[in-house]
Fold this protein.
Amino acid sequence: MKNLLSSIKISVPEKIFLKDPESSDLGKRIIGNGISLIAEIGFDSFTFKKLGTKIGSNESSIYRYFENKHKFLLYLTSWYWAWIEYQLVFSTSNVSDKTERLLKAIEVVTRTIKEDNNFTHVNEVTLNQIIINENSKSFLTKEVDSENKEGYFVVYKRLVSRIKEMILDINPDYKYASSISSTIIEGALHQHFLKDHFSSITDCDTVTPTKFFQELTINAIKPN
């Protein structure tokens, strides 16, 4: 299994990048150092010029991979959700009980992230912090509808659909499967943020976001 996982390639929609950063050592350095730089200074202060200085390369070399920093953030968020999706698939594929399968899926998308040694150029713990803090900036833009049509968010939407289908497997009559599925994923990011910064307005400083969303979901989807 370990050898199988190490051969997995996380797929990001091709229209997001100009050249696949996974295809070269420079591209992987751009990704790895870009993650650490955004975590250090925040996405608003992040520029390709600063990233070029960090990796000891011309700013123009980064533009060969990404059109702008918005596309770079889209790449990081898509990579992250694809990585979460592959964990969800492997974690639930052999779980026959429908409720246990859903609970496991919720655990995967809400738990505290640990580093995955199968992808050495990406620090998933640091990337997770970027997703918690910056994820909404990838889609709260004027271009969101056109980018959605171009398929930029297909990985994220596919992850939502996977959890939705697990909910409907338990209760086919539940009317809000898409809404609760997307709420689990986005809500987990928000609860992790509150836990770290506004602990007085969340219970997830004492109870994990995983436990909260597992209980919330199971109670919500119970057949009448």
Notes: Confidence is low (pLDDT under 50) at residues 1-7. The radius of gyration is 18 Å.
